[in-house]
Amino acid sequence: MALRLRTIDLALPAALAVAAAVAMWPGAANEAPVPVRGTIADPCTAENLVFSGTADVRATVSAGGGGTYRIEVVADFAEATATGTSGEPYDLSGTAVASGEAGAPFPVTVELVGTGLLSRAGATEPYDARLRFSLTVDDGGAIAPTGAIEVLSLACRTPGE
Predict the structure, then answer these.
(1) Which of 22, 133, 134, 137 stands 20 to 30 A from 153 (CA)?
(2) What does the pLDDT look like over 76-113, one tens digit per residue?
């Protein structure tokens, strides 16, 4: 009986310590709709595209070395659109990813350049896209999008690429 009580006596403080460490550990994801902006020439049609709508952004932070935080971003563009100079709307879909680090002094705003594939309704091949994400990280590892996602460039993909 004494052995059983001893195990319980040690297990409870250990469980509380693990729970406290997990609660303080950055790594919880922040999800938010973020506006999509940019005017880029469509490399496939030479028409200017004006981006609008939102992307659902999931940003995750984890502890890095030397007091830094590692940032991972995944954006889903299902709610993003573009309008060509002809007035034709482009419904977009696809995802993009970016990663980087943030360091002191906190809070700090970081800009990450990410890549992904954006498809438009009716197109046979997606665009290769480069995008800029702006995020703010505080000293506790909390992360939040700052401003819009900027479409930096698009490239046409050839069939089968």
Answers:
(1) 137
(2) 999 999 999 989 888 889 999 999 999 999 999 999 99
The closest of 117, 146, 143, 145 to 131, measured between CA atoms, is: 117
What pLDDT band is residue 41 in, cutting at 50, 70 and 90? Answer: very high
The per-residue pLDDT for 123 is 80
Q: Enter the tokens of residue 23.
A: 């609660």
| Three-class SS of the chain | CHHHHHHHHHHHHHHHHHHHHHHHCCCCEEEEEEEEECEEECCCCCCEEEEEEEEEEEEEEEECHHHCEEEEEEEECCCEEEEECCCCEEEEEEEEEEEEEECCCCCEEEEEEEEEEEEECCCCCCEEEEEEEEEEECCCCCEEECCCEEEEEEEECCCCC
Question: What's the rounded Cα separation, in Å, for the pair 92 and 131?
Answer: 14
Structural contact between residues 47 and 86, judged by C-beta atoms closer than 8 angstroms: yes
What whole-number distance in Å separates Cα of residue 101 and Cα of residue 85? 37
Pair type for strands 29-37 and 149-156 = parallel
